[in-house]
Design goal:
Blueprint (H helix, E strand, L loop, with lengths): L2 H28 L8 H19 L6 H13 L8 H30 L10 H25 L7 H7 L1 H15 L8 H60 L1 H13 L3 H19 L7 H16 L3 E5 L10 H20 L5 E8 L3 E9 L25 H10 L3 E7 L2 E9 L4
Parallel strand pairs: 1-2
Antiparallel strand pairs: 2-3, 3-5, 4-5
């Protein structure tokens, strides 16, 4: 096989490796789209289509046509993944910076080491192989870093804009470097400038990550202190209610004795039932080893009881549940509020919350009776609550949280039982 043919094949391998790197970053940072079940598969098919176009029309490699096609791929692929508009812009910026830094760094380094002019580097098979390896390695490292930091951003929108300024400048400088390549071999100044930009971006990312971790730790400390305060208040309220019931115990016994002496057994039973409900509502404190979740579930139990809904729990140790404080409130408050609202209108108002953990993930199921079955086209989230009483409200927010942690959900409604089941990886950040 001729050298030109080898370079041609490896050049396409460079395109494939670059697409793989793009897909890895999008999958980790953006997650799945609601309407697209297999975003990576569709992205791969689109990449194949772009490669076919490159072969048919002979775009070449590292030419204006190939750069333009890569930009189209970079932005079109976004439709297969989830995330907000801002998150998609950030993901595109990350991939753009990664692509430019890799290309310029490999080009100038290879030119300086081999003595090949910069515009001839991509005709050398060994340089192309280096580019393939660089794409895969850097794409994997960036994806791993994004996975580690996913769901832990403590920065405000304006702070994110501020920290994005330097990477944007780096992109502009890399574009200038790319366009200013000459027919000569790369000089030491060119090499140092390219490597300096790459190192500067990496250091910038590390510093931003460290600052974000410090802010997150401070927020977590304040949040834990607030949780402990709320838990202490809940325990105090329970203790006060228990003391009040204990103080009134003698009166309850006397009242029961009077009813029984009068032979009014029915009233005595009703009285016992009412006292039992009061005791249970005053002493319901969960113990999942997750203080915030204990507080949420206790309050929802009391709210359900006030509306005549029976709420049953089947829980495990949830100390390591990966959901953050705000996300925990969004998920369980919305799900239980909707379940209580739906069950209150049913003939048998019941709710069952079940949480289990295996080695890989947490499995959560919330099911409640409803007045009538709810239509759920394609198993997707209800778009409106007007025709689906008791459900749909806040579920979009729940899905946004689950998506951030790499979770999955299913919804069903059969036999007047509405079920919302979701799973999240046990090791989510």
């Amino acid at each position: 096989m001729k050298s030109n043919e080898i370079s041609y094949l490896i050049g396409h391998a460079v395109c494939v490796s670059q697409c793989i790197a793009f897909i890895m970053v999008y999958r980790v940072y953006l997650g799945k789209n609601r309407w697209c079940r297999f975003p990576c598969l569709w992205s791969a098919l689109l990449a194949v289509g772009m490669l076919v176009m490159s072969v048919v029309w002979n775009f070449g490699f590292f030419s204006a046509a190939s750069v333009f096609s890569n930009m189209i791929y970079l932005f079109v692929t976004l439709i297969f993944f989830g995330g907000t508009a801002g998150q998609r812009c950030v993901a595109s910026l990350i991939n753009g910076i990664m692509c430019l830094l890799e290309e310029n760094t490999v080009n100038y380094t290879a030119s300086w080491l081999t003595g090949i002019p910069t515009h001839e580097v991509w005709k050398n098979p060994f340089c192309l192989v280096a580019m393939v390896v660089t794409n895969l390695v850097v794409g994997g490292l960036v994806s791993a870093a994004l996975y580690r930091w996913r769901g832990r951003s403590a920065m405000e929108p304006m702070q994110r804009v501020a920290v994005s300024f330097f990477p944007c400048v780096a992109v502009a400088l890399n574009i200038v470097l790319m366009l200013s390549r000459e027919e000569n071999t790369a000089t030491l100044i060119n090499l140092l400038l390219t490597l300096g930009l790459t190192v500067a971006v990496l250091v910038h990312v590390l510093i931003v990550g460290m600052l974000n971790d410090q802010v997150t730790k401070r927020q977590d400390s304040r949040f834990r202190a607030e949780l402990e305060r709320q838990r202490a208040e809940a325990l105090l309220e329970s203790y006060t209610a228990q003391r009040r019931l204990t103080h009134e115990f003698t009166n309850h016994i006397n009242a029961l004795a009077d009813l029984l002496e009068q032979g009014d057994v029915k009233s005595a039973r009703e009285y016992i039932a009412s006292v039992s409900d009061r005791v249970m509502s005053g002493t319901t404190i969960m113990d999942t080893h997750n203080p915030l979740l204990d507080s949420i579930l206790s309050r929802k139990y009391e709210e359900a009881g006030r509306q005549g809904v029976a709420l049953y729990f089947d829980l495990c140790d949830l100390k390591q549940l990966p959901l953050g404080g705000t996300d925990l409130v969004i998920v369980f408050s919305n799900l239980l509020d909707n379940a209580i609202r739906g069950a209150a209108a049913a003939d048998l108002p019941e709710i069952y919350l079940r949480i289990r953990k295996n080695r890989e993930e947490y499995l959560v199921s919330v099911r409640n009776r409803v007045e009538r079955d709810v239509e759920i086209p394609g198993g997707q989230l209800p778009l409106s609550t007007k025709k689906e009483p008791g459900h749909g409200m806040g579920l979009a927010n729940v899905w946004d949280v689950l998506k951030k942690y790499g979770g999955e959900y299913t919804i069903s409604c059969r036999g007047r039982w509405f079920r919302f089941t979701f799973s999240i990886p046990a090791c989510s950040p």
